[in-house]
Amino acid sequence: MSKEKNRKRCIAVFVLMGMLITLISRSAFAGNAPQLLVETKNSLLVFSIGGNGKLYQSYFGQKPGHATDYALLQSTRHEAYIGAGMGDLFEPAIRVIHADGNPSLDLVYVSHKTEKKGDDLSLTSIRLKDPKYPVEVLLHFAAYFKDDVIKTWTEIRHQEKKPLTLSNYASSMLHFEASKYWLSQFDGDYMTEMRMKESQLTTGIKVLDSKLGTRAHMYRAPAFFLSFNKPSDENNGELIAGTLAWSGNFQCTFEIDQQNSLRVINGMNPYASEYKLPAGKTFETPAFIFTYSNKGKGQASRNLHRWARQYEVLDGDQPRLTLLNNWEATHMDFNENVLVELFEGAKQLGVDLFLLDDGWFGNKYPRDGDKTALGDWQVDKKKLPSGLGHLVKEAGNRNLKFGIWLEPEMISPKSELYEQHPDWILKLPNREESYSRNQLVLDLINPKVQDFVFNLLNDLLTENPDIAFIKWDCNRMLTNTYSPFLKENQGNLFIDYTKSLYQVMERLRKKYPHLPIMLCAGGGGRVDYGGLKYFSEFWPSDNTDGLERVFIQWGYLNFFPSLTVSSHVTSMGKQSLKFRTDVAMMGKLGYDIRVKNLSPDEIRFSNAAVQTYKRISEVIWFGDLYRLVSPYEENRAVLMYVNEARNKAVLFSYLLNFRRKEYMGKVLLSGLDPDKRYKIKEINLLPDAVSTHPDNGKSYTGDYLMKVGLNLSPGKISPLSSAVFELVME
Ligand code: GLA
């Protein structure tokens, strides 16, 4: 047979096979719709393929006990990932404008595959495509079985002749059908991060979003609880906890339609971000992460914590370093002698590391205030004539590791970098430069700027290989949103900025996979799981007042595990040192204080506190968190951590600003083994103090502690006081 005949025959066979497959799949659409299942231990997400070839979300919620019942979940009411411009008139998941100007997208099911990636993880990918335009969308669902967590994201690609314009691009679209919906959101401002507010959703749209660009989370975190039918509490109620893994502008949209169905769309914020996608390139959205619980918010948080420690946070299963930071102790006013004095202080505290904060760099324009030197990352020769190596050595002589502060994405108008590279800066043509904290943002989208940032860290770590920790700050949002590098594609700016940050972090992590780096953005301006893939912990707030921190840390602990929540003892706030220390111990303990201003007893207390923390930190970092009394409900906060073996627990009790004779009821503990006995010991006492707590030294069964509980505030109690208890199985 000639080559040509052979080729024709092959084509014919191929076409016939294609027709056959189409027929088989079409006939499969008749009657029972084929289903795709995304399963975790307790939750089930069901998709069905309708007779029209479209993908529908038929169910999400508690997993029925009998797999044979799954077939009953056939609803084709809610299209899974809705393209704008076709029949649906509510918020779309995706909106594109084709190269020919057609602003619609019709998505039909093409194929799917599910891969088992071990006992705990399975990955389902569903391919959808437009029958008329060469555009395809891939929906990905990573199901983490034991923790009931689903991570979902989307890929968009096309083969059109010109770039496709994307104006909506959800990471996920989910549909719910309940009688009522309750949303808990977490927002605030600089110094008041993560204030929890809960409200019932009503018909129409509620949007939680950020348009701040860099430091996007300052006013609001991309995280929420969504309860169904009635508000959930810690132990009761059906809900999801959701959070977007994205360090830039985000948008979470909750829309109730005329039939009381709720559509939840999460993703990057489309605000000012019409994205031009060239043919052949893949546009990948960040992941939306959610967990289902029918046992209240506590279970949802524990699911996220466990999952995050195992899968998402950099070295989430590894210990953290305790440290002394010098920001609140000295601000930028220090020299070598002062630092050496602080090293001595760190040694007295017994922490692992000294962290040198802002103010160590700049020569032509020294960093003595916040108007200069960002970008000029050379040691200030006047302040620190012997260089960083000397400091690292001096710290080492005191058995301390050394860490350093950087703000790599920023530039001061008064800097040598500004003089050398005015085109490396995000700023609008024909407009005045607009500053925040007297600084501008580098155009990180420019590969040369990415190299600059990579080299800054790489050179620093090459010259000082003993640097053991970085604090990566980002102290302003975007107001000059124009990238000289992007030219006519300014709509890509917000998205490409964050993607560029991740690219730099990828490069850094290849070379320095385990170096602990703290994610900081003027306090908690950037806290999310997109960042925590590269960062070992975050700075929750510049507000370190002990009372305020109870609320702020409480807020973050809803979504992020304790070993990521940097919690420092400082001199802010009027509470006792013991109170502030007990508060810092609920997260990742550190200090930011002038040790030489502490009394000998305070130093003794703090040193013992660090030792105690090191002894119990395994339970705090890797244990399960149980929030027992919320500071939003009473004038106190009580929480506990229980280790996996359930033979050790740590209980924190904080009395806040309560009124005279305010009654504090017994607290029911949680997470213990009901059949085992636990001995209770009050720890972290002041030097020479003995516990006066009536339960100190006593043993009770887990059952008793969880059903009858403990009176944590017996006798005369004072506001702003606290106690820490250790429970050890006998
Ligand atoms: C931000 C950080 C602080 C400190 C200063 C330094 O405000 O949140 O912890 O590092 O910057 O300028």
UniProtKB/TrEMBL annotation:
Residues 637-727 form the Glycosyl hydrolase family 36 C-terminal domain. Residues 1-30 form the signal peptide. Residues 74-277 form the Glycosyl hydrolase family 36 N-terminal domain. PROSITE patterns: ALPHA_GALACTOSIDASE. The keyword Magnesium does not apply. The keyword Signal applies. CDD domains: GH36. It comes from Pedobacter steynii. Keywords: Glycosidase, Hydrolase, Signal. The active site is at residues 473, 542. One of its GO terms (biological process) is carbohydrate catabolic process. Coiled coil: none annotated. This is Alpha-galactosidase. Its EC number is 3.2.1.22.
